[in-house]
Amino acid sequence: MTAAATATPRARAALAALLALPLLALAPLVHARWQAADHLTTAVGVVALLGAAVPFLVRWARGHLQTLSYGVASTLWGAGVTVAGLWPHATLGPVRLTHLALTAAILGMLGLGVQHVLAARSGSDDPPLLHDALVLGSALAVAGWEVVNRGGLHGDTAWHATTLLLVLAASSHLGTATALGIEHTRLRRTAVATGVMTAATAVAAVAPGEHTTHVAITVALLAGFTAAIGAPTTAARHSGVSSARAARRVEIASLVPGPVLFCDIALMVVSPRLDPVLFGLYLWVLLAFTARHVVTARAVDRSTARLTFQALHDDLTGLGNRAALHHALTGPDRDHSLVLLKLVGLDDVNDVLGVATGDAVIRAAADQVRRTADDRGATAHRTAGDEIAVLLPGGTDEALHLARALVDGVADVPATVPGAGRFPLSAVAGVAPSPAPRPGDEPGDPMTALLHADIALRDARLAGPGHTSTYSGAVAAAHARRSLLREQLTSAVRHGSVDVHYQPIVSFRTGRVEKFEALARWEDPLLGRINPAEFIAVAEESNLVVALGEHVLRSAVRRAADAGVFRAGAGLTVNVSVVQLQSPGFTDTVHDVLTRHRVPAHLLTLELTESVFLDADSPAERVVTELAGLGCTIAIDDFGTGYSAFGYLDRLPVHVLKIDRSLTSSLTHAGHGRSIVTCVVDLATRLGLSVVVEGVETEEQADACRAMNAPLGQGWLYSPAVPCTDLPEQLARTYPVPRLVAPGA
Ligand code: C2E
Ligand code: CA
Ligand code: CA
């Protein structure tokens, strides 16, 4: 079976033809033997061969592997009966030819039965397998009866053997009926029909006599026929669209009644009480069953194809799905690479325009990806709502090329969807190799490539939309560190062991500390001191930043209040991430903190980055308005590094611009740095905003700031962030101011 499983349909067809060759060899023999033959038996054998063995073999040739065993068994059976018919009296040495032929037929059935029992034992939980085993057991019993009958046993012995075997057949039918009824409610009609067959066979066994036997066997046959047409149709109707496995069940169910009919026909043929009318009836049943089988097989083929398609494709986009990718990644015979593409910006489309438009955008993006992938012989699979995996032959260099083309192509997608044009769509992509297994390799998990591409994708996401990244040892190590960090940080946040330090914000004019910026500090027992930029980024990747931010806000305000910061009229400024701002109840938390510690709202500044204001009418903007409504001061952090689309300054309540330290460091260098900072300070003054210059490290920088009338500065020139115990000292302190612009000057 293993070799056949890997053979092409053409090779299987050739093998099937080979298996059928012995049948052709029988033709001249049939002719030569016709006069001496037992015509009816021969005819039944030939009909069995043509009516059952050939359809099974043809189906097997078309790729229905499990029907091979049926084909072989039917061939042995049909050939056996034919030979028995052609040489009714011949002997081979001491053995009668009839015995040999019928033994071959029985062996065929026996082999089939054994195969089914083995399949059932090997863990398949397919109830039809049990059903088949029972039916075949009955076929075996009747075949045995035939041997006894044809083998020339006479008198009481023959009669007892016959009765015994008929009872065996009846109980086997009964077992089948019960198994069907219990295990498959949907096959109940078949179960009832098989039950009738049981009763009829039992009558033939216990009430022998020409008429009873004929009537009983006719009833058994008609019941068998009903079972034959009942099984596939009801099973097909109830199997629905769930899976290809359901289709396989239908297929098996449709094959089962065949052997049942064989054995009953055989019963009739060998009966010494044969009459032609009954024989015509049996023949009609066999032909009808065969026709029925062909029709069912066609329907099953079609539904199998449909179910297979559905099982392997994504409904929305028509791309392959995760299962198809798994299939494609299993045992590729050459090196491949995987590109995992994630769409960024779909949430906004879904939120504002609705899911239908979101779906249209995904479809358009999938089309775009498919076209680009097709051009390079790659296949695309949708692995998650906003993720598409593209598998292409070759190394990661080509894949990275493709990844960049895919990421670039996504930007054009919204324009093709009515209404979505104003929403920017971008993407990030991760690339990983999917090497063919080398000789001697342990078989690995085929989805490893997807896992690696996902790690590379996360790496690309850190760099921001539009980026791509290739999986490597370093990328994997960074990912592992982030995972460990996330785990440790989660417990640190839960135990409140993340600390807050305070960096003074100093007036350039007076040298007095006007505010403190609260900055999170974390020292992990395992990993040591971690840079805030690193752990804040990790926290932002998950929702952890919400709990972390709330902890920093609450403890910063509490300790500052305890240290008398607000009583002294100084302010506190706290960093707020976008995720935090979008989390429900943020305004309430701020309100609660202010009232609990009796802090005048204007002394609390919330620092946001410009990314909050990226899309107009985003929910974050409403929250900013609420916070300003409480009386809080709103500052834009890192101003001059982001998008700097000034529109929001007009639209929203912003009070402070914090000039990023990259601009500060360019103040005293050659170039336009100084002019840019001057312009920003000017802009802020005209808009009535305050300015804090960040990262002031040298006297020259402070002088330059003073010269352009910037009011406040923050940086190592004055002080790094200090623990809360240093707050009173900082409040009491005046930083030196050069005489040129001394206080009051
Ligand atoms: P940021 O908001 O721009 O904070 C200022 C950063 O500049 C701080 O880094 C500070 O220590 C550093 N800094 C101050 N003066 C100087 C200077 O003169 N020269 C230089 N080179 N650097 C200076 P830190 O504490 O490492 O924080 C890094 C970033 O982490 C912060 O940048 C902020 O974005 C984020 N962060 C820190 N604490 C929190 C927090 O509680 N919540 C949130 N959401 N983000 C936080
Ligand atoms: Ca800040
Ligand atoms: Ca900053």
Overview features:
TIM Barrel; binds ligand C2E; disordered N terminus; Alpha-Beta Plaits; disordered C terminus; binds calcium ion; eight-stranded mixed barrel; five-stranded mixed beta sheet; alpha/beta; 745 residues; 28 helices; 16 strands
Which molecules other than protein and nucleic acid are bound?
ligand C2E, calcium ion
Strand order of the largest sheet: 8-9-11-12-13-14-15-16
Report the C-alpha radius of gyration, rounded.
42 Å
Strand content: 5-15%
What does the average pLDDT come to?
A: 78
Give the termini distance in whole angstroms.
98 Å
Q: Tell me the count of domains.
A: 3
| Helical content band | 55-70%
Task: Give the biggest beta sheet.
Answer: 8 strands, mixed, barrel
Q: Count all strands and give the number.
A: 16
Structural class: alpha/beta
Low-confidence stretches: 1-6, 123-135, 150-154, 230-243, 741-745
Sum up the overall morphology in one term.
elongated
Number of helical segments?
28
